[in-house]
Amino acid sequence: MHQEIVLENHPMKIAIASTFHPYRGGIAQFNDAMAIALRDEGHTVNCFNWSRQYPSILFPGVTQIKSGTSTPPHSRSAPLDSISPNSWRKTAKIILCDEGVDVVILPFWHSALAPALRGVARSIKRLSPETKVIAIMHNATSHDGKASDKWLTRRFLKRVDNVVTLSASVTQDVIKLAPDLPVKTLFHPLYDNLPVKPEKGLAREKLGIPVSAKNVVLFFGLIRPYKGLEVLLEAANSLSEDTHLIIAGECYGSWSKYEKIINGSEAKARIHVFNRFIPDEELGEFFVAADLVALPYLSASQSGVTATAIQYDLPIVASNVGDLSNSITNGETGALVEPGDSKALGEAIDDWFREEHPGLGEAYAHLKASKSWEEFARQLL
What we know:
There is one protein chain. The chain has 381 residues and is an alpha/beta fold. The chain has 2 domains: 13-186, Rossmann fold, CATH 3.40.50; 200-369, Rossmann fold (3-Layer(aba) Sandwich). 34% of the residues lie in helices and 15% in strands. Helix 1 (26-40) crosses helix 13 (373-380) and helix 7 (229-235) packs parallel to helix 8. The two termini are 19 Å apart. The model is unreliable at 68-72 (pLDDT under 50).
């Protein structure tokens, strides 16, 4: 039985050391929203960004920085560098410059950052033992990771007071790594600041998708091996001839294996590829142009794409892995299939489009109420 640390219900001084704007990706988006939600609850929140997140040699994408005009929570400058131990100690001192910091939140999602986060946590506890250090574990080990990930994650967990996860599957992984550490399972909140929905016809026209297409399936997000894009591409051959696919996201690694499948596919003319990072301001065009989101993941913890799909009221057909089943109810909000089964995936997509689903709106209204950022901020502390 894990006994969690209970913090008094009063305004607190909170520091978050992690990734924020202008870094791109789902973690930065999550952290920005979390900081705003905690401030809305009356807490004082200071955000400390990386001076260098991943060394270039470890980053598989084009760039770590996004452009745009979105306004993030105010973040203080920090020397936090993933490969400079001296910066970890300096960051801890800067965080504690404000007297009486109650909580330091350290989001974790990749083992490459574990040494730096461990270094910050260690220095915080040495300089201010009464300050609570909370790890928010998006994953317990890195997606597509190596055996050394577990070792790095375990060392990091030894330096925190308790853990918050976003899914039951990650909670179980944390317990295996640190059996005596208090763990609280929350959820991935839904984003409520998404771009305004364009008209469907205009969205499709802008993306070059036939406005008359009966069914459009969207695969969205960074393309990495664990996301199983090849399973969806193989399923495309069996989909009805009035179904189009949108593949939208930057590929981390080689695109050639996906390109080979597409070039040999009977559905090639109905597969529309946008192999690039999709900025926030274009998000609405892709989700509104679609009628369904496909998540053919081979493994997963939880998915920010799921949260976005729900906010845009799109059904989801996904692999039954990780925590995806908590948002997807067969026949109501989508369908779940076994991972790696392209035949089952194709059948589930076709079945969804053939049937009526009057309960989708009501089910999503309930999810939006129960998975708000306001509720997340309340439960977090």
